[in-house]
Amino acid sequence: MTYNTHKLSSQNHSHIIGRQDSVTGDAIKANDEVVFCSACQSVFLVESWEYMNQKHCNQTETLGFVPAPIPTLRAKKKTRGKNNDDKLIFEIGNSNIKFLYLLFIVPVILSLVGININHWVAGLFVLAAILSYIGLLTIIYTKKLKENNLIRKALRVHKNTVKVLETGIEIQNDKFYSYYEIQKIQYINKSTWDFLVNLSEKYIAIYLKNGEVITQKLPSKRYEQNKPFLFALAWAAQFTELHFYTEVQQELGLVKSIERNYAGKILVLD
Ligand SMILES: [Zn+2]
Q1: Same domain, 184 and 139
Q2: b/e map of 239-260 (b: 16 or more CB within 10 Å)?
Q3: N or C: which end of the chain has fewer CB within 10 A?
Q4: How far apart are CA 197 and CA 231, in angstroms?
């Protein structure tokens, strides 16, 4: 089986050099030939990777690149934060697409039903369909204008949106907490299965210095989609304490790697 190896240089990979290979316990040095587990981004000497039968985190994928020291700070849209020029590190939330799809499909079904039943109720269906169309057009029109904040907010109310900004955390496009007022952030991901139903509970708790605790439910996303959010939180850990608690095995590997490899007060809770 083939896997990606990287030869480390002292100029480009100083953030990797000095880390520990968890198999041998040796510190990684310049010119070492290394492999990165793609799930948790832990670094291993090639010999260790071979020793583990080319597997870590129950998988065999390796990174085709050397991971960057911290997630790069990039501005997506300048106006997205509450403070107009506050840079967005990462935003997590459910999209409106399903909702808009529903808005589109409901009037279609209503009018089809209305046309096909020969009863006074049909009139109500057609009326409801017309109203739905008007609603839909209004929303599309408003989206185009991108001015009507009220509708935009209404559309986003239950999206469980959390933004990691350069200066703080914004919840539901509404409340903003600066890193100065935050004492610690906890990321909790509980995953319980009950009669084949996944009762997972994912949220962040923001502990403010004034004693207040703000909790916000997070959208249920798959591991891969959730990963950048965890890196964004790790980025924020340069300003505040960060605790991870996760019952998802793959995610646990990742947060443990973040705990080991990132600067800042990061702790993985048991
Ligand atoms: Zn791994």
Answers
A1: no
A2: bbebbbbbebebbbbbbbbbbb
A3: C
A4: 29
DSSP 56: B
Here the ipTM equals: 0.98
Instruction: Report the number of distinct structural domains present in the chain.
Output: 3
65 and 116 assigned to the same domain: no
CA–centroid distance, 58 to ligand 1, in Å, is 8
Point out the least confidently predicted range of 109-113, 117-121, 157-161, 251-255. 157-161
Report every protein residue that has its C-beta within 5 angstroms of ion ligand 1: 37, 39-40, 56-57, 253
CA 265 to centroid of ligand 1, rounded, Å? 22
What is the domain-level CATH number for residue 228? Answer: 2.30.29
Confidence grade of residue 48 (pLDDT, cut at 50, 70, 90): very high
On whether residue 216 sits in a domain, the answer given is yes
Q: Please tell me which residue, 29 or 223, carries the higher pLDDT value.
A: 29
**107 and 60: one domain?**
no
Helix (H) and strand (E) counts in the chain: 6, 14
Could you tell me if 171 and 254 lie in one domain?
A: yes
- Cα of 248 to ligand 1 centre, how many Å? 14
